[in-house]
């Protein structure tokens, strides 16, 4: 497929009308036309000179692909909207014209590195289990962490009927007076509440959790709530899938 061609569902998604999956549903429901003809088959390729309509309204142009790194603060939901009226990560992006989506999730009370983009291809690659993208967390836990306590996490533990992949875990600090510990854990899976559930499983419930790093992106230079646009080099590295083999030094 040439640079000027793109699958129809991707064009619809990048126009900000729906997620990639939502765009696929629109197509199969017969809501999308190409050059005046209804298309219901997925995978159809369109070029820059083709006219695409959704529900009778033309897509004026393809949205420029953008990529951002956010230091997500506590008390913000990782969604595009919230039925409870809570602040979302999109509310923090004040000067972005494109409609972007978070890559994966962070819990309401979890802080740290979060990517946002309107590039559905990259987002799907990053979130696919086979990509094995490293996610590095620093957790403050209740209890005294020991090598023995954390050992099961390095082998994998059963969470909600499924065994987790082996994690890399280190003890950063122990406060025997307050009976708390700081633990760094590296995983590549993306289940909901996974780090909290894993540490709870070994008797170390999480008090605070920060994602320090996602793939090769860290929080250096970003205060809580701040974000930055990815550099051209970083975007190329993502597209080259170098992140699959990345490991923290």
Model description:
With 249 residues, the protein is α+β, with helices and mostly antiparallel strands. The protein has three domains: 5-58, Roll (Structural Genomics Hypothetical 15.5 Kd Protein In mrcA-pckA Intergenic Region, Chain A), CATH 3.10.290; 67-130 and 218-245, 2-Layer Sandwich (Alpha-Beta Plaits); 135-214, Alpha-Beta Plaits (2-Layer Sandwich), CATH 3.30.70. Helix content is 20%, strand content 30%. The protein has helices at residues 8-14, 20-28, 120-127, 147-155, 194-201, 232-239; strands at 5-7, 32-34, 37-38, 45-47, 52-54, 57-58, 67-72, 101-102, 110-117, 135-142, 158-159, 162-163, 168-175, 180-187, 206-214, 217-218, 227-229. The strands form four sheets. Strands 7, 8, 9, 10, 13, 14, 15, 16 and 17 form a nine-stranded mixed β-sheet that branches. A four-stranded antiparallel β-sheet has the order 3-2-5-6. The model has no long low-confidence stretch (mean pLDDT 89).
